[in-house]
Amino acid sequence: MTNSRRLIAIKNLEAPHNSYRLLGKLRPFQFIFEPLQYCCIGGFNTVVTAAIMALLAHFGVGYIAYTFVGYLVGFVISYAANSLITFQIGSLSIHAFARFLIVNVGLLACIQILQYGLIEVFGFRELYVVMTCMGIYTIVGFLLNRRFVFVRRERPL
User: Fold this and answer.
1) Which of 3, 11, 54, 125 qualifies as a FRET site for 116, CA 20 to 30 Å off?
2) Rounded mean pLDDT, 17-35
């Protein structure tokens, strides 16, 4: 085996584990810790967003304005925390934030349509549908964000 082939073989051994195609290239156990971190950040973010909305509502701000501000603050916190903690991208960019907004606002719209259909058209119980859709939003959001927003750029050899 030549030196260049040995070097390639060593680099291949050091490459991240790639058996989780949908999630992208992951380090060992990352497929467990990333979703857990994502959920913890989501829980924290939900509390902060709800608190902002409640505070603004308390001071007489209309629901359209306070939900907009709450979601906007929530999106900023979620993007920053997931970039730096969960997916460890290491930097924030306006382009990635724009992708994050497109993915998450689009997903939120799809979930709202699904909820409307299941509750209003098919008559399913509201609480069950809302809770189920929260789970769907979390799982699909994690997968979409992992795949399209928080993408690690590979360095050339």
Assistant:
1) 54
2) 61
How far does Cα 29 stand from its chain's mean position?
18
Over 70: is that where the pLDDT of 28 sits?
Answer: no
Quick one: tokens of 128? 């069950």
Beta bridge partners of residue 26, listed in sequence order = 17
Residue type, 91: S
For residue 74, give the amino acid letter.
G
Supply the pTM of this predicted model. 0.74
Side-chain half-sphere CA neighbours of 44 within 13 A: 13
Q: Residue 11, CB half-sphere, CA atoms under 13 Å: how many?
A: 9
In angstroms, rounded to a whole number, what is the distance separating the alpha carbons of residues 21 and 83?
20
Tokens of 149: 């927003």
> What is the pLDDT confidence band of residue 150, given thresholds at 50, 70 and 90?
very high
